[in-house]
Amino acid sequence: MSKKKEVSTVVNVETNVAKALGRPSNPDSARQKKITDRETKRAAGELKRGRPSVAGSKRQATLAVRAEKVANGGTLSKGRPVNVNSKRQQALAAKTVIV
To answer: Which of 56, 60, 74, 75 has CB atoms 3.0–4.6 Å from 69's, for a disulfide?
Structure first.
C-alpha cells in the first residue's frame, strides 16, 4: 500500500495597499476645512501672511521717507543716533585727540 502525497501549490498574491498611519482624520471637521482652504489659497497665490499694514500709519510714513532717500541716492544711518554732546562722546573724542 503506497500512500500518495498530495502536492498543492499556493500562490502568494501581494496587494499594494498603503495603510494610513496614525489617527484617521475627519475631512468634514472645521480644522480640516481650514487646512484645505489654506492650501487652495496658497496654490492660487491668494494667501496673505502676517499682520496687515495700515496705509496712513507713522511707521509707513517713515518707511516711505527712507525709500525716497534710497531712491535719490542718499545714505541711511543705521542704529541709534549718537548725541555728540554727551559726556561719553566727549571723553571718547578727547582720547582720540591724545593718541
So the answer is: 74
